[in-house]
Amino acid sequence: MDAYLLAITVAAIVIVIVGVSVFKWHAFISLKVASLFLAIASGLSMDKIFVAYETGVGGVLGHLVGILALGTILGKLMADSGAGMQVADYFVRIFGVKKTAMGDASSRFHYWYSCFLRSRNFNSTAFSYFHS
What's the number of CA atoms in the CB half-sphere (13 Å) around residue 79? Predict the structure, then answer.
């Protein structure tokens, strides 16, 4: 039984690699197909597969849903207002076209710094969540 489980696990890994590299599937889809294959081949019933999927994905996404939702909203607002292009143009002007990765890293650091480091001395209700 152990050799069989090892073999289907290796087959699931091959499914992920082939799905992404040969069939050009999105990594999420490739992982879902491989995990479904692994669950069925290992003998799980369909009701246990659905429970395991809901528990696993729900546990991970439950912690991230607020961040993902706010990031999506902010990204859409920046894209629609043109602010995203202004930020990109600013960093291209500062760092040059060949060093845009440095501009990206700089913008991430400034965002992180302003939200998390400076907020320790900032008594705003918006940041009280992070320090409660």
Answer: 6
